[in-house]
Write a structure and sequence with these properties.
alpha+beta, five-stranded antiparallel β-sheet
Length: about 375
């Protein structure tokens, strides 16, 4: 639920053109992007390096000016407004803590700029330090904190000024795997408890899937797809999105017909899938998108693609089995391995899939 300070964010046909001195040409970092964040919503921009996601965040914060288009926070046009007038707060990848200040002084920085009275400031600083689990560390210098603790200080410093919009630019990329997992939970908890509108930038699909109300997948300065984490994972619009948000295998097939399902033929066998690209029609070449959990391993010849088990990776609650096929290496996720058959490395096998867990996509692999 949004708090009274949270506001919507609207980008209308935002473009950012840079001059490339090497090629002596203009390059579109962002090529005409439009979307809206509702008050209290956390939206993640997800995509590979160079896709324009950080440029969008910098334009929203005011550190970059768009070449064209409009940016609204609530009902205010902030397109040409300086950063300090926008009522946004940024959490950076590098923490950006002041080494000559202790933890409390770092967190109080924004309140001091706003000339908040000392008693109110100190009470608020303690409240936010406790909120991020650092209530007893106010007098420590940043140099005596772990990376995760420093990121909590940076988060508290941004949240304490109660901005209309919180911007997070790959804030967890400097942390180890366990700390990243813990901080994902913490950021989600704080954002929801405060009801603040937030935009998060990352190239890490796990971060995006675990944090977001909505994900915007970007490529080459444009939006490929927007949806909930479930929509993006289960119902991608193309092979790029399918591959970027999770492990996937693509099986070539031919569309035989479309009604309330998409009917395809693969190696003489017929299947029907409940999800498909609506542009597909009978006779089209297509691809069956199969996630690791939708695949199963059978005796040679029993499935749709034969291969050889190349590796088994034990993960406790599951085993990841890699099968080398003519289509490349395919990952199969086997849950509850204690009660399932695990095929030995080197064994010849055949792959099958559950059609209900797949999607039929247009064959655009060369394009993507």
């Amino acid at each position: 639920m949004a708090n009274k300070n949270s506001k919507s964010v609207t980008l209308e046909n935002i473009k950012k053109i840079f001059w490339d001195p090497q090629t002596k040409q203009n390059v579109a970092a962002v090529g005409g992007v439009s979307f809206k964040l509702e008050p209290g919503e956390l939206v993640t921009l997800l995509g590979p390096s160079g896709c324009g996601k950080s440029t969008i965040l910098r334009m929203l914060s005011g550190f970059e000016q768009p070449t064209s288009g409009k940016i609204m926070i609530g009902d205010v046009d902030v397109t040409n407004m300086p950063p300090n007038k926008r009522d946004t707060a940024m959490v950076f990848q590098s923490y950006g803590l002041f080494p000559h200040m202790n933890v409390s002084q770092n967190v109080a920085y924004g309140l001091n700029l706003r000339k908040v009275p000392a008693k109110e400031r100190d009470e608020k600083v303690q409240k936010f330090l406790e909120m991020v689990g650092l209530g007893q560390m106010g007098l420590r210098p940043p140099s005596r904190l772990s990376g995760g603790q420093q990121q909590r200080v940076a988060l508290a410093r941004s949240l304490i000024v109660e901005p209309s919009v919180l911007l997070l630019d790959e804030p967890l990329s400097n942390l180890d795997a366990l700390l990243r997992e813990q901080m994902r939970v913490e950021i989600r908890r704080l954002q929801k408890s405060l009801g603040i509108t937030a935009m998060y930038v990352t190239h890490d699909r796990v971060e995006a899937m675990s944090l977001s109300d909505s994900i915007i997948v970007m490529k080459s300065g444009l939006i490929e797809q927007r949806g909930t984490p479930s929509d993006i994972y289960r119902d991608p619009v193309n092979t790029f999105v399918a591959g970027f948000v999770g492990k996937v295998a693509f099986f070539p097939c031919e569309v035989k017909g479309v009604d309330d399902s998409c009917h395809v033929e693969i190696k003489g066998k017929n299947f029907s899938a409940p999800r498909w690209n609506k542009t597909l029609k009978s006779g089209d070449k297509a691809l069956i998108m199969a996630r690791p959990e939708s695949l199963s391993i059978n005796e040679p010849g029993a499935g749709v693609e034969d291969g050889v088990v190349s590796a088994n990776i034990y993960l406790g609650n599951s085993v990841e089995t890699w099968v080398h096929t003519d289509l490349g290496n395919v990952l199969v996720q086997i849950d509850n391995p204690d009660v399932k058959k695990i095929w030995a490395e080197g064994e010849r096998v055949s792959l099958s899939f559950d059609p209900a867990l797949t999607k039929i996509l247009a064959d655009d692999l060369e394009k993507n």
